[in-house]
Amino acid sequence: MGIFDIFKKREPHYDSTNIQVKDLDVGFVFDYDLATWEVKAIYEYDWGDNYFTREFKITDGKTNQFLSLAEDDELELSISQKVKVRALDDSLTETLHHQQKPPKKITYKGIAYYLENEAPGYFHDIAKGETWEEFRSWDFEDEDGVNILCIEQWDEKEFEASVGKKIKEFEISNILPSS
């Protein structure tokens, strides 16, 4: 490395004239649903068979939500927020712990969610390095496939849940990198 290399700017990992959702990084801001959101953290999920997804912890200054990004044949996006597992069903934690199977249907706030997928996986917070945690995930969708519910098991008795909805890429706009 020469003396002048120190003064060169590091090239961004994205096209600065066409920043897309998949280019998001910590500190980026974007508009969604009449609010401006900032990316606070990035999480990566390994589902096996070389299939990875990303999740961005985002905030509008009042609430924290999660923007999930999966790229299979096409880009799939969803926005969700954490909910208490017992808010879904008082006995759900016990059922999952003892039977290791979720119900086929969960009704939450008047929406019926149906079990779509069960998958073991590995998770890591990109900012914290390469330490991966094993977990199990159960994904539910409503009849129209728009509203989603996810339950995750982290340890023998530790469960988390989130609810949200699938969104389209065009719903996210004005993406700007951190200054």
What's the layout of helices and strands?
Layout: E1 29-32, E2 35-46, E3 52-59, E4 64-71, E5 75-83, H1 85-88, H2 92-99, E6 105-108, E7 111-125, E8 133-141, E9 147-153, E10 159-167, E11 173-176
By secondary-structure content and strand pairing, the structural class works out as mainly beta
N/C terminus separation: 26 Å
Give the integer mean of the pLDDT values.
90
Query: Care to count the β-strands?
Result: 11
Helical percentage? under 10%
Helix-strand string: EEEEEHHEEEEEE
- Overall, the morphology is globular
Strand order of the largest sheet: 2-3-4-5-10-9-8-7
Total of helices? 2
Count of the separate structural domains: 1
> Using only CA atoms, what is the Rg?
18 Å
Strand content: over 45%
Detail the poorly predicted runs.
none
InterPro entries: DUF4178
Protein name: DUF4178 domain-containing protein
Organism: Plebeiibacterium marinum
